[in-house]
Amino acid sequence: MAVARTLMKREPPARKRRGHGAVLISDVARLAGVSAITVSRTLNKPQIVADSTRRAVQAAVDRLGYIPNRLAGNLASTQTRTIGVVIPSLFSNIFADSVRGMTDVLGSEGYQVLLGVTDDSLDMETKHVVSLLGQRVAGVILTGGMHQRRTRELLKNSGVPVVETNVMVRSSIDMVVGYSNEAAAYAMTRHLARCGYRRIGFVTTPMERNDRAQARRAGWLRAVREFGLVERAGLFREATLTVSHGARAFGEMLASDPDVEAVFLAHDMLASGAMFEARRRGLRVPDDVGIAGFDDLDIAQEFVPALTTVRTPRYAIGSTAARMVLQRIRGEATGSACVDMGFEIVQRDSTRRPPA
């Protein structure tokens, strides 16, 4: 199995010039009007360089998108057998399962994973990408399709294969493997409507920097409107991805709309909190309120009653992304650059069952 190392190195922001070929230190030197040695000194020991020189060099770096090669002098070749992987969090095994799929495939081919965690920060994602490219990774795998413009430009012009995962996006950087979050949330809401629920609340993780959360809310809302379900502001909540915040959001929704019939939570961890809160309040699931989740974590089937949820192929997404990167590195045809792995609605006992 490949070794997953956590990415700690931080690099200053940079912009990549358009066109083909890597930006060289000599390019920066020419634009800044200094020698290559001065550029190197400025980047490695800025405190010993005059302010005017430092500003000129940094302006050239920003304009050209120069990324220092942190492996220079250590390797005869700029190509490594390392794949950069950037994920939002290590807190949930959603991403751990995907990374395991990646490392299983990459490790069998002698590649390692260099791992960066963003905590849902697009700024941090950009810093990780700059650092990964500076360490000359052979490919990059990202989570989601929402990125800063500079991140997209750096990756598009880097010449390395890039895979965005856990989404289906119209405008990809390179390749995509995942599923439609909107379609999955729509399908679950439609399933709950078929079970007889008319007042269906929805809880998702914060949407500001999370395209998956935005898409899931859009899917829920589309189904609510299409099937003529009750639409009220009080039936929607955002919650940080913890069990306690899932419980809190569920309690707030009950306080805002005591007549809510079912709650669809966009992560099984949030749904776990709702299940615990229902028990604390003496509510019978599903007799008093139905509860549904998303991702089909191991805990979902251990609840009493077991949790109705959306099953996503996390391991398969990771392993497929890794194979796509390796195929591109070898120059092999990858087939479709957009692979939809699909999803499945898993009916268990935390919600009423639809009619036969």
Structure description:
It is a single chain. With 356 residues, the protein is α/β, with parallel strands linked by helices. The protein folds into two domains: 76-179 and 317-340, 3-Layer(aba) Sandwich (Rossmann fold), CATH 3.40.50; 181-311, Rossmann fold (3-Layer(aba) Sandwich). It has eleven helices and 13 strands. The chain has a seven-stranded parallel β-sheet, sandwiched between helices. Strands 8-7-9-10 form a four-stranded parallel β-sheet, sandwiched between helices. The two termini are 45 Å apart. Residues 1-20 and 73-77 have low confidence and may be disordered.
Please state roughly what percent of the residues sit in beta strands, choosing from under 5%, 5-15%, 15-25%, 25-35%, 35-45% or over 45%: 5-15%
**For this structure, what is the CATH class of the largest domain?**
Alpha Beta
Can you list the strand order of the major beta sheet? Answer: 1-3-2-4-5-6-12
Rg on CA atoms, Å: 24 Å
Task: Please write the string of helix (H) and strand (E) elements.
Answer: EHHHEHEHEHEEHEHEHEHEEHEE
End-to-end Cα distance, whole Å, is 45 Å
The backbone outline, from C-alpha atoms, is: elongated
CATH topology of the largest domain: Rossmann fold
Question: How large is the count of helical segments?
Answer: 11
Report the CATH architecture of the largest domain: 3-Layer(aba) Sandwich
Keywords:
13 strands, alpha/beta, 356 residues, 2 domains, seven-stranded parallel β-sheet, four-stranded parallel β-sheet, Rossmann fold, single chain
